[in-house]
User: Fold this.
Amino acid sequence: MAYPYLSDLVRDLTGLDLPLPVPMFGLLVAAAFVAVTLVFQAELRRLHGAGLLAAARQRTRDARGNVVEVAVPPDELASNLSLTVLFAGFVGARIFSFLEYPREFLADPVGAIFSRTGFTYYGGLVLGLLAGILYARWKRIELRPGLDAVAPAIAIGYGIGRLGCQLSGDGDWGTTAVLAAKPAWLPTWLWAETYDHNVVGIVLPPPGVYPTPIYEFAMAVVTFAILWALRRHPFRAGWLFSLYLVLSGAARFLVELIRVNPVFHVLGFTASQAEYISVAVIASGLVGLALTSRRRSPTAPPAPAR
Assistant:
């Protein structure tokens, strides 16, 4: 069962037919944004307090009206940075979706642009990170410690967002489920789902498809737990983000094996867009781990923000 709107979920849970036309996907994206901001802010505050992240710089006007730069704790900029990444991420997710389904986009570009579905995670990650890096450079937030701070936040935010995909039934599901292969101890709803009344209006015949958003949510939670447990690591800045790249890339590659996505033929290889990008992400993470897996030097206390 899918619940495109909050009213659908409330009706199924309570039997009450309330006028709550709030899209479930949008509601979960909002929840993901809040979670990302809170985790990111907490990590920026911790790293700054531990002397591992210097103060950021922000322009303001003094008493005479002159534009001056002042030092501010980096966690005070977390909300604005998250908003910047969120907006750029939506644009990137849309663009990569058009690249993944070029024929559908060219057949109806206006409909594709204003559709409630059609978002590609890696597009959001790439453009969102790029926007975040540019914002960090503008505010003079140190890049590698900043990336370490955002790694657990991205992981949990992605997981919450995938719950939105699951509840709304936005098409991010898997291939037709093979019930004969289901372990006896596993509930059927974790193996096959028909997503009745899904937001894209597609009828899926029984037994249904693999509910891959649930699997991605579970892997995102595990990734977050690992990153959160290791966030006080003794290695150089950038190590935690590199580990995130390896874990998230591997998780996405695995789930793509049972996902419905178009494939592309590149240099003799046949794979989906996400699989190609996953391999590149894993490779980047491994390089990052190799470059940062040395113990950092002792740090001096951070300069006070004024």
